[in-house]
Amino acid sequence: MLKLRIEAPFDDLIQAAPGSTKPFEAKLTLLEPAPELYSIHLSARGVSRRSPSACEFPPLRIEFREKPAGPSLFWGQKSLKLATHCRRSGDFQNYNLLEYAAYKLLNVLTPVSFRVRLAEIDYVESRTGAVRTHRMGFLIEDIDELGERNGLKEIKTDKIERAQLNASAVARSDLFQYMIGNQDWSDRVPTVGKMCCHNMKLLGASSSDPRDLIPVAYDFDSSGFVDAPYALPPVGVPIPTVRVRNYRGLCQFNDQAIAAAHEVMERRVELVASVLSTPYLPERSKKSATGYLEEFFDQIKDPDQVNRHILEKCRN
């Protein structure tokens, strides 16, 4: 558990957030486990959560003015995403913790996934020195760090073809998204104005020969597992709420999806234990989240169920 103090002109940043991700001068203080102080640039990030209709407080990006040197906790980091609480109520703190738990679920299934670090944070208005909010949040590993520890590199491209994807990795990712009830992603099409892909990063051995690519999912706040009140099914997706699962895997990867289902069932106890160990998450939220997972396990517990819920629902 980290303890942080972030001092910034939050009034200005929040006011600008709906239309801008411009950075503001700020200070980051690590209070625990050992004191460290850094000058940073702080900016709002994301798309829907920068809208006041969704969130009072946007997710943030921390950019160090200079890369911290060793033995700093942030050694070698340049930019980190910070997932925040969105609104002041306790329920929104729980949604934040559930998204953190979703990242940890993917960590159980594969090391090629974003690591996250929970933090207790004081958000301080720099003009007054007053603490405006004290909440939990979590830092998300930088894609370069993720790639380096897996011997891979980020592949940046406008779009990709199915043949360029690693079949086993795609099937695992598709099944994970189904497990948490997430529809807010694409492993082939980018967010408008950005590189491929929507709420996915692509990793591969070589940017000059982009093949056998591994999609790495992120941003799970719109999933049924989290069930945030602002989360709605995307237009055209035939489900009434995000709690209803809808498999979007490709039919050509059905053999790999069967193998992925076996892998997930083998990790069933570990996955449930991961959710139950989420710090500060109330028991009622743990019960709801693990119950949602158990519904998924029932859907992949035998070949007939896998065929009914997964293989017959695939996309051509």
Residue share in helix: 25-40%
Q: Figure out the total of helices.
A: 8
- What is the element string, with H for helices and E for strands? EHEEEEHEEHEHEEHHHH
Oligomer: single chain
Q: Please give the largest β-sheet.
A: 7 strands, mixed, barrel
> Which percent range describes the beta-strand content?
15-25%
Outline the structure in words.
This protein has helices at residues 10-16, 90-109, 143-149, 167-179, 254-266, 268-276, 283-299, 303-309, and strands at 2-8, 24-32, 36-44, 60-64, 79-83, 116-125, 131-140, 153-154, 200-204, 214-217. By secondary structure, the chain is an alpha+beta fold. The protein has a seven-stranded mixed β-barrel with strand order 1-2-3-4-5-7-6. Strands 8-9-10 form a three-stranded antiparallel sheet. α2 runs antiparallel to α6, α4 (167-179) packs across α5 (254-266) and α6 (268-276) packs antiparallel against α7. The longest helix is centred in the N-terminal third of the chain and has 20 residues, at 90-109. The chain is globular, with a radius of gyration of 20 Å. The N and C termini lie far apart (44 Å). 38% of the residues are buried. The model has no long low-confidence stretch (mean pLDDT 94).
Key terms for this structure?
single chain; 316 residues; alpha+beta; 7-stranded mixed β-barrel; 3-stranded antiparallel β-sheet; 8 helices; 21% strand; globular
Topology:
Elements: E1 2-8, H1 10-16, E2 24-32, E3 36-44, E4 60-64, E5 79-83, H2 90-109, E6 116-125, E7 131-140, H3 143-149, E8 153-154, H4 167-179, E9 200-204, E10 214-217, H5 254-266, H6 268-276, H7 283-299, H8 303-309
Parallel strand pairs: 1-6
Antiparallel strand pairs: 1-2, 2-3, 3-4, 4-5, 5-7, 6-7, 8-9, 9-10
Helix pairs in contact: 2-6, 4-5, 6-7
